[in-house]
Specification:
- This protein is mainly alpha-helical.
- It has two domains: about 20-65, no CATH class; about 70-190, no CATH class.
- The chain is about 50% helix and about 5% strand.
- It is built from ten helices and two strands.
- It has helices at about 20-30, 50-60, 70-85, 95-115, 120-125, 130, 145-150, 165-175, 185-190, 195-200; strands at about 40-45, 65.
- Strands 1-2 form a two-stranded parallel ribbon.
């Protein structure tokens, strides 16, 4: 519309697209702090690479990015649900909501139990899918009850307490989880950081 706005107390402090607002603000924040003889060493964000690329290109000092654990968990959940919707796995156990909830729960537990320890976190995350399929070779005795009582073991949160089955389903799940336990990713996940306070402030 071409109508002239009424006289008002305008607090506009950004021109350009709304998509550019967050990365532009981040760059200003990181650069303005240097006027006070200080620098930010880390920041926490979801895995949208726009802000990260802006900071690398326009901030004249190194800053380490941590992944927002809440966003990562949502991302994993969405990808598993999308996998269930888009692909059928004949001769495999259904990738139901209950199965997805179980896998995401294991992901959260692995992260929280290994806070600050990227290598331990990586080892634990690598075991999630094999453990669900009844492969316990690399499981830790500290949490894998199969290693404590193999003959009596049943999964507490999988349908009927049984292992998942189906090679195609296992490969698909491994394909998703492998992206969350790469060397680079576990370094970003290890602090178990989140940006919830920032979003509330905004």
């Amino acid at each position: 519309m071409n109508s002239t706005p009424r006289k008002h107390d305008c607090r506009i402090n950004h021109s350009g697209s709304s998509k550019a607002m967050e990365p532009t603000s981040a760059v200003q924040l990181f650069n303005n702090i240097t006027k006070h003889n200080a620098k930010y060493s880390t920041y926490t964000e979801d895995d949208d690479s726009t802000t990260e690329s802006f900071i690398h290109a326009q901030v004249p000092y190194g800053v380490e990015k941590f992944s927002d654990i809440i966003h990562i968990k949502r991302s994993l959940t969405s990808r598993l649900h999308n996998l269930a919707k888009m692909k059928r796995f004949p001769d495999c156990l259904s990738l139901s909501t209950k199965v997805i909830d179980y896998l995401v729960k294991c992901f959260s537990v692995s992260d929280n139990q290994n806070k600050g320890e990227p290598k331990s976190m990586q080892a634990s995350l690598k075991c999630i899918v094999p453990h669900a399929f009844g492969i316990h070779t690399d499981c830790s005795e500290s949490w894998c009850r199969w290693k404590q009582e193999p003959a009596m073991y049943k999964h507490a949160y999988l349908p009927y307490g049984k292992d998942l089955h189906g090679e195609e389903l296992k490969l698909a799940q491994n394909g998703i989880f492998s992206q969350y336990y790469s060397d680079n990713m576990v370094e970003k996940l290890a602090p178990i950081a989140n940006s919830r306070r920032n979003e509330s402030f905004n």
